[in-house]
Amino acid sequence: xxxxxxxxxxxxxxxGYRALExxxxxxxxxxxxxxxxIWDMFGGGFISTMAKHSKMDRAKQNMEQAKYDLRQFSxxxxxxxxxxxxxxxxxxxxxxxxxxxxxxIVDWMVQDRINQAAAxxxxxxxxxxxxxxxxxxx
Length: 138
Hints:
This protein has 138 residues and is an all-alpha fold. 81% of the residues lie in helices and 0% in strands. It has four helices and no strands. Residues 96-101 have low confidence and may be disordered.
């Protein structure tokens, strides 16, 4: 069986775009969670808390999918002698505390966790796009 670099390159590109799609979905839901979180911090009440948590749950699902897609991308990159390491934390966003101890301090802590997750996702998007650009130039 012979090694087909072009085929492997195309598989890596496909895996990269799948990872990018998951990351962009997470980015979208985190942005929405941040917006609802700001509203929640300044007295938004139960509805804003529910909306924020809905978006946080979606973002967590997107981030779990992105972790899977990024592992696949890393494997495909190995096939073309490139490396990619991506670390995304899908922590609990302090959800329990936010529901049961609703107040500015807890809301601020949750907002900080959302911001941290958004920064990780933004960094992963930047890195995947950079690798895809290099792969597509070959």
